[in-house]
Protein 1
Amino acid sequence: MSDLRGFVSFDIDHDEEEKNLFIGQSKNNKTPFSFEDWSSKSSLPQNQWERIIKDKINKCNFVVVLSGKYMASATGVVKEISFADESNVPVFGVYVGGANTNNNLPSGLQRNRTIIWDWDKIASAIDQMMTERKNK
């Protein structure tokens, strides 16, 4: 799989450690894919954040939402999923931080497109994303 641009959406208040682990592990040579993390690296004023994030998501092949236990309260994640939809960018989720099918998902993230943290399953999901929406 060639280098892809993936935007990693996560709840900065609860799942930043999982995001760092996810990105770190994705760089491991045993991971069956590679991608650039285009998520925001710093806190920004709201209007600047929205403009920059919309632009970044528009330039990505997919968005992966790291879905933790408190995801339903992550308003920024809901906006990022909406930006992806507006830009025709496919989205899938990965359960993190002990979350599972019993936890709420953010608006716009489908349960049947949210998977456990397993690199083979994630690679399959990314393969699927590359056949959808703007990647067709």
Protein 2
Amino acid sequence: MAARNVYLWHKGLIKEGLPLLLFTMLGFLAMGYHPGFEDDGVYLAAVKADLNPALYPHNSDFFRLQTQATVFDGWMAHFVNWTRVPLAWAELLWQFAALLLILWACRRIAAQIFPSVPAQWAGVGMVAAMFTLPVAGTALNIADQHLHPRNLATALILIAISRILESKRWQAIPLLFLAFLFHPIMASFGMSFAAFLTLALLEPSPFRAPAAIGSVAAAAPLGWIFAPDSPSWREALASRSYYSIYRWTWYEWLGALAPLFLFWLLWRVAQARGENRLARFAMAVFAYGVFQQVIAMAMLAPASLVRLTPFQPMRYLQLVYLFMALAAGGLLGRFLLKTHAWRWAAYLLIFNGGMFLAQWELIDEGAHLELPGVATGNPWLQAFDWIRHNTPTDAYFAVDPRYLAAPGEGYRGFRALAERSQLADGIKDTAVVMQVPSLAPAWHEQLAAQSGWPRFQLADFERLKAQFRVDWVLVSYPQAPGLDCRWHNDGLTVCRIP
């Protein structure tokens, strides 16, 4: 009996584990991997500061204050210290693990709403291919191309949802609490959907939700969230149109409302066909979406509630888009793919190949997979690498405040990759200021001091040194006369300010 149980366990592991690994690998290859990209400029810098407190003696508040809302950086630092796995490999390991857990949870969810096995796996395959699908006007993808606490929180939320669908509701509570520790705002959306799904599954379905369910205001664990605004903070807010739905374009509105209509339609059709589980799941997504949409519009309309803008209530759509991919893939698997091998091959090639090409085009001048130990041909990453290995730990850099948008830079964070302090920038630090208004005056002062950067001469750099104690700069090559330059490539040079 024991031998038979071991045999069945191994058989089940191969039957479930190998397809999951395959889809995870396909999704990973399609989305790419870019440490230090976008939000990782904040989170990776925070992890490195935890591992080496001597780093970032200047301006560290531009990542430390925001990351107080999550255990992510401390948890990663403890993992690296405990396992002795180098941080670069640890981040890659957990990125892959997060994607695998997302797809494993999607498999469990699909098994509850689609009786057909091909439909279940087609849903998983669609989610994997659509990891980098943009979510309306929220500046989010379904998953990030680097390790982000949102990826881990999403995995935990989906596992909790699978527990609810499998009638193990109490197991969802610790999972949602753990998700909250990693990403409070996204976890609050997960809690909201879990409440709607629980109501939808009741017999009979009394679909009435108390007004308190899903309130994103509960997602704020720290007092600075409620700090008063200021002119500098409103300047930062004005630069981020995706924070306010009333500044969205018509197609961004379509991207928000069309999925809700599709889930309403799926609910009605599945109900008419007697597919109870699919109908109730679709009803839960629709009701959750309508509720959160109303909350978002109420939060973002009055000027008196402008300080609630950083809660980004429209990001509830991340779950809606993920479930839309799962449902769309499931329906394709059920009605079109079935067990036809050539159809499956075309399906995987079209969707994974299309998303791969989109990401290849998006991240210019860089490898699609930026793996540890692999040399880069990107001039910006070469400069960051030289700075990391050849400048003092306490070096304080000035960089073009709009360097993230420079051709070929690819939105990689200086602090995270060069591991040096930096004057405030006008792109990523703006988003941080939105979350932490107390940083707005310092951000505004530093940004104003760097105005006219492309025309800077030695006197301008000396002014920055006198005002902020900046002693190094990363500038275009050839540089302005008088700087003490130590390294350059075809486009950039690293110099000391005399």
Protein 3
Amino acid sequence: MSLTIFNEDVDLPSLQVDIIENWFNEVIVSNDLKLGDISIIFCSDSYLLNINQKYLNHDYYTDIITFNYSRRKVISGDLFISLDMVVHNAEKFSIPFNEELHRVMVHGILHLIGFDDHTEDDIAEMRFQENLWLSKLDLNH
């Protein structure tokens, strides 16, 4: 089981992959699940818009699209993340780029686990989970 990082038409952000993989594992195991294979594909707004149009029939920009390949209790999937949107949202909310990047990453993991963000209650629970897990991310190890 592993975390693999890719990039399409953008430079890779600086990440501590081993720490991120351990963090994802902690999020997943705390939900009585197991970490499978997770891929993160960093890309541009236009790249992600194309995926949104082609595979989801959505014609709008977004920060992340998650493809869930989980089976039984093993969490696996692809997280396509627009770094353009991460930069935009970090500036919009006056937060550091890395904080927004980690929020989007754990948001994708939470989707793979089964959390959703369609209703107000879902959104509130998703934000609670994001904040909880962001508070547990320790990049100083």
